[in-house]
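Hypothesis: this fold can be encoded by more than one sequence.
Test: take the structure tokens below, design a sequence, compare later.
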């Protein structure tokens, strides 16, 4: 029992809150308003959340967009890109894909990809490869809640960013969502 208390004390002292619940709410509101400024009525736009954790982010953004615009017909989907990853077979065992839910035409649309954390850029590259199997969008934009800007391995930059953080490569940024983790918070491990 003492070991567990010691272990959790050590873990708790190594966590740094980057965004608390209130700050996360404000950031999500700002990002949604930026989308409204650039896409107006969303008639030519499709919002796509990247599986797995970008979906929680995109669900929140879609909800806020509907509140702001009153438009309940915003085109929204979810994309799994598991089999497009370049590290698919690297020491991760069997990969179980999530569900892709894109039941609309993306040909000629402005597509906004949403993911919670942008780190090396490899996730975004894999997602764009998977997206092209559904058609050729007119434009692709990227929205990330957290941009770990100095750890990029590929020349990918977000169009919309909630928070840019400077981290060491071995550090981890974890976005906690109430729906999945029981609370809303962004922490640095």
């Amino acid at each position: 029992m003492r070991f567990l208390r010691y272990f959790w004390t050590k873990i708790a002292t190594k966590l740094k809150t980057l965004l608390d619940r209130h700050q996360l709410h404000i950031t999500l509101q700002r990002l949604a308003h930026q989308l409204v400024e650039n896409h107006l009525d969303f008639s030519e736009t499709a919002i796509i959340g990247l599986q797995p954790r970008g979906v929680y982010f995109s669900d929140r953004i879609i909800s806020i967009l509907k509140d702001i615009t009153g438009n309940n017909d915003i085109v929204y989907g979810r994309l799994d890109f598991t089999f497009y990853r370049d590290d698919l077979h690297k020491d991760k065992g069997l990969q179980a894909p999530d569900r892709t839910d894109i039941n609309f035409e993306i040909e000629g649309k402005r597509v906004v990809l949403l993911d919670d954390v942008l780190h090396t850029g490899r996730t975004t590259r894999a997602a764009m490869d998977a997206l092209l199997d559904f058609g050729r969008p007119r434009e692709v934009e990227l929205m990330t809640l957290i941009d770990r800007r100095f750890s990029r391995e590929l020349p990918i930059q977000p169009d919309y960013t909630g928070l840019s953080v400077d981290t060491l490569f071995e550090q981890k940024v974890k976005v906690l969502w109430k729906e999945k983790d029981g609370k809303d918070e962004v922490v640095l491990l």
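Confidence is low (pLDDT under 50) at residues 6-10. Helices lie at 2-14, 21-39, 54-69, 122-132, 178-181.
Hypothesis status: open.
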